[in-house]
Each structure stands twice: as C-alpha cells, then as structure tokens.
Amino acid sequence: MNYEADVCIVGAGPSGALLSYLLAKKGLSVILLEKSVALGQAFRGEHLNEEGEAVLKSHHLFGAVEALGLLRMEKLEYYAEGRAFKTILPDEAVGHLGIHVPQANLLKGILQESQHFAHFSCFLNTRVTQLIIDSSGRYTGVIASKDGEKIKIASQIIIGADGRYSTIRKQAQIDMQKHKHGFDLLWAKIPAPQGWEPSIKMALIDDKQLSLFTQVGGFIQIGWNINQGSFLQLRKQAFTPFINQLSEAFPELAVTVKTHITSWHDFVLLDVFSSHCNSWGTKGLVLLGDAVHTMTPTGAFGLNSALKDADCLASLLNKDTIVQFDVQDFQQMREQAIEEVLAKQIEKEQTFAANFINKAS
C-alpha cells in the first residue's frame, strides 16, 4: 500500500510526537511511524525540567499532559549513614525540582491534540526497512512493514526521531561518535511507603551514585550506577549483600525493598553512553533527539533537549521551506546548546561524590 505526506516522522517518542503536532498545526501533512504496538515505554526519560515545561506551555500542551497525571518534585535530599544531611528546595518562581511525567501520559497528551488534524496519521507496529533515495541523492520516503504488510510512504522530508539506536541514522549511513562514561545503570521500581513525599534522594555507594525519584501513581524509581560492563560479573555474586546497601542508605525503604526487589531479575540494565553526529542529516532527511545526540541519564537532560530540538525544527519548517530546507540551519541553532548540556553532564558525573565530602556528622 502506498501513502504520501509532506513529512514522515519515524519514532513516536517525545520529540517525534511534539514535532508531529507542531507541523500538523502548521498545515503540513504528517505520517508518524512507531515500531512499538503501544505508545510509552518503561524506564525512559520521564523528568521535565524548566526548559521542557516551558516548551510544552508555549504550545498550550502542558495542561493536556497535566490532566493525565504528573508529579512535581518538592525537594532534593542527599543521604549519608541512613539520613538526609542536605536538603535543596525549589526556587519559588519555579515551584519544583523537576516534574515526573510518565512517558505514556506525555505522548497521549500531545498526540490527542494532533488527532484533531485530518492530515495527521500515526501508524503503530510499523518498522522502517528501507529509505527511498532519488537519482540526485535526495531521500524521498521510506519502505516499512506495518502489521506485517509492506507499505511505501513518499514524503518531502524524513525525520529520524527513533532514538539512540536509530534505524534512520544507520540507513542514511550517518556516522555517530560514541562515548562511554565509565558506568552503567540499574533501574528498578518499587511502591512508595505511605506518606512518601515527592522528592529526589541521592546517596553515594562505593563512590557510585544511587538515586531515588518519586513517580506518579505512588512509586519510586531507583537508579543505581555500577561500573561499566560489570553487571554480568555482579550477577554471579550474592544478591543479598548488594541490595542491603540500598536498605542501609535509605532505612525507611528496608521493608519495601526486601519485599519487591528479591533478585537480579528485578533490575533493568541500561548501557550508558553519550554520542554525537557531525552531521545532523542530509538532503531530505533530518535527525533529532537521541538519534543525533544521545545523552546519559545524568541530570535528566535527554527528554528536555529532545523537546527543544522538536520546537526548534518546527520553527524552520513550513509549506514554503520544506523542499529547500537545509539541515545545517537546524544544526547550527541547536549544536552548541547540546554540546553545553553534554559537558554539564560530564561535570555532574565527575563532581557527584564531592556533595558528600562535608556531610554533617
């Protein structure tokens, strides 16, 4: 089956969803492709900062997302020897230290607004298998498998918003430089004890960061840094001494941890790396978000940078500019800001332990 649209966006994560809405609102016909059968994946970036919040509010989308459920972090606490020794409260003008938004809520809040446009379509369970390129070297569409059926989509421009392992980037043979940061991350999710306040809590275990993030629905997300590439060896060791470190760092969670984290299988491993591409696209094709500049979880910058990418790219595309669009314009507008964020992440990683040097006795 053949389809045609002004824009074909691959990847219905935050950047792809937001860009779809913004371009459809401008009158461009948009087809959004997502390989998953449902929107929203567990253990993805789910914390908005001031910048991401501002982007959504500027396009009157924040209210729709908030109606579906979000949670403002009321404090940041540093823990040592089982108790908080330093507390940071939000600036009154901001009102939070980050906002937890389940990705499913964020995507639904944005895409339900996109559904108002007849020239917008979203295809789930659709995987791109090939890019279409014309004799001049311009990309003009994609071939994909939708529910097992081969489809072809012709478009003026292809947007690769398909994440850190981007198919579009690989198909377009755009080189990526990958950088390891010396650690990987274990994720876990547990119910929050009664009376748990919306907060971010940090501890230091074996010179590695351990973080707790309160989540919508009465949960706590645990992020535990471990040495890069160490998980296979770690899993061969006894589990109880390892998990007891979490209970010792946060004694109020001892019962919950013992009940809900009982083996290595209760953790999800994230291979941590950052990356950047010297080229953000080519004729008829653009990359944004993690597809072109993967970030580590540090500081929860990835989601917010992706939303800013989408906002910026949308400002450059309309019916008149789409055919002559030069990806260099987009790259020049965003590249320096991305480099600054990546540098800030490295600084936070390298100085995290310093927060615990002068802890109260």
Question: What low-confidence regions span 5 or more consecutive residues with pLDDT below 50?
Answer: none
Number of separate helices: 10
Total domain units: 2
H/E topology pattern: EHEEHHEEEEHEEEEHEEEEEHHHEEEEHH
CATH architecture term of the largest domain? 3-Layer(bba) Sandwich
Sheet of most strands: 8 strands, mixed
Q: Give the CATH topology of the largest domain.
A: FAD/NAD(P)-binding domain
Range of helix content = 25-40%
Overall pLDDT level: 95
Question: What class do helices, strands and sheet pairing give?
Answer: alpha+beta
What percentage of amino acids are in beta strands? 25-35%
Q: What is the CATH homology-level superfamily of the largest domain?
A: FAD/NAD(P)-binding domain
* Rg over CA atoms: 21 Å
State the end-to-end CA separation: 69 Å
| Name of the CATH first level of the largest domain | Alpha Beta
Number of strands: 20
Could you say which overall geometry the principal axes of the C-alpha atoms support? elongated
Question: Could you outline the blueprint of secondary structure elements for this entry?
Answer:
Layout lengths: L1 E9 L3 H12 L4 E4 L13 E2 L1 H9 L3 H7 L2 E2 L2 E6 L2 E6 L10 E2 L2 H12 L5 E4 L2 E8 L5 E8 L2 E12 L6 H5 L5 E4 L2 E9 L7 E7 L2 E8 L3 E9 L3 H4 L4 H11 L4 H7 L7 E3 L2 E4 L4 E2 L2 E3 L14 H15 L10 H25 L10
Parallel strand pairs: 1-2, 1-11, 2-8, 5-14, 11-20
Antiparallel strand pairs: 3-7, 4-7, 5-6, 9-10, 10-11, 12-18, 13-16, 13-17, 14-15, 15-16, 19-20
Helix pairs in contact: 1-4, 1-9, 2-9, 3-4, 7-8, 9-10
